Amino acid sequence: MSWITDEMRGIVGQVMREAVSYPIALSDIRKWAMAVYWPEPPPRQYWDEDYAARFGGIVAPEDFNPFAWMAARPTPDDPPISMSAFRESELGVATPDYKAILLTEIRARHGAPMRPGDVIRCVWKITDYMEREGRMGLMLYTTLSQEFTNQRGEWVRTLDSVFARY
Question: Is the whole model's pTM more than 0.90, yes or no?
């Protein structure tokens, strides 16, 4: 028996949802860097414009989240922007019946840095299904990918979250 149906295979790679950030403000980057590096001061490329000029200007830390506050132009009908709130039903496919879901792994790959003024587009996709036997029986592993690009179409980051359902 398999959890993975032909319908589920058919939605791999399809966009489940998307969001567009407000333009990234210099103060957003500075505050994020201060919070991440606290109690130490953050590296100068995240807050000192004169210092960062020699490297092309201020950049955001790689883990910066332009959606930490909210997406641009949200509507009441927008689904929550939560990694764990995905369902195959968003793409018209029945969600498997499971007892529990666990986030088992997060992988990040980085491209172009985020800078003040950038507007980031993020799309969510299921990019992989895999099964294996575990102590609780057959487990379904689902990779949910968030792909970030900037307003110039440059790839910024891909964040893969792997969930196990049983």
Answer: no
